[in-house]
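thread: overnight batch results

M.L. [08:02]
morning all. the overnight job finished for the chain we discussed friday. pasting input first so we're all looking at the same thing
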Amino acid sequence: MSVPHPVLLGPGSDRTATGTGITEKVRHRFAVDGVPPTADAVVTAVKEDSSVSLLGDTAVRRVADRVRQDLVGAGPLASLLADPAVTDVLVNGTEVWVDRGAGLHRAPKAFGHPDDVRRLAQRLAASCGRRLDDGRPYADAYLPDGTRLHAVLPPVATSGPYLSLRTFRQRPFTLADLVRCGTVPPQIGRLLTAVVEARLAYLVVGGTGSGKTTLLSTLLGMVPATERIVLVEDAAELRPAHPHVVALQTRTSNVEGAGAVSLTDLVRQALRMRPDRLVVGECRGAEVVDLLGALNTGHEGGAGTLHANALGDVPARLEALGLLGGLPRAALHAQVVAAIQVILEVRREARGRVLESIGVLVPAGEQQLATVVPAWQRARGAGPGATTLTRALADRGVRVAPVLGPRR
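M.L. [08:03]
and the structure it wrote out:
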């Protein structure tokens, strides 16, 4: 027995027509006839259905658009994903939650039945070439428009299915945008510009959803147009507004367990592509060893992101990743200090994402282990590392001493 398709329509919409199962009728017709669900074909099929025969042309077109979204788009979630303010759409069973940059809020929309969520998740996963069924009840993929999809089916998802969709922003943020929305203070915006201009290597760190990719994309957009940026990512998320960007993306193995291409493989390939700026979208494994090696062999101005809770946690996190690559502890710390100069920490708060602090990597102690010293903190202003940072910029011909201001 077919479960009626979910009805997530606003006041005055054609609730009766859609609720009678017209989507399932059109889907069955296209499957039997082998007709592709183009916009015109869907309109024709909807018009021929008796449940909409009394509706006017405008209403029919509205129903047809909704049916096509259920067939080939994001279905009931399409309007949310189209909202430029939305960053995340989460589905828990039949509930829908939305983040518009200020935390999660429950949407007034809800799915009619978990089976509707399952069908939508499987169709979206299949459109990305991913398997999602009882044999493999989870999938991580990117939709054609760049939206990131993660889905988990029962019984792994105990009250699921669960869907997590992170939207892709078509227009990258500029530094002025980040200053305007309060993510970056104006005076620190000038400092970030100086870091890029001086070709200092930096890492953007923070928790999940804190805005690491957004900040990194913005800073890469400030790289001079005469330079070539080579991106290496596990999944293509970075979209800097720059005229000369080439991107490499990892590949998972096929059903036979062959054909995988790792981040480590891609970092090595990127070094042969004449990069002016080598960027690893997210350091999460042994590839950090290759990145450090690259940044220590003349590739200045490189960047990447790293999951870390605070500035002080960065050396330990890098050490853990470096050990995966077989690099001894002392050698790893020496490479970190020589390769990376600046750490940018971002944090997600109730009012949105903010640049929390800026640190510099310096050797400390008898063993000369990498240590992060705060140069600026949102709550305290300039820190003990401010002098080190301004000196590093001045050594490269960029003077920004007044930007950090007095230490509080």
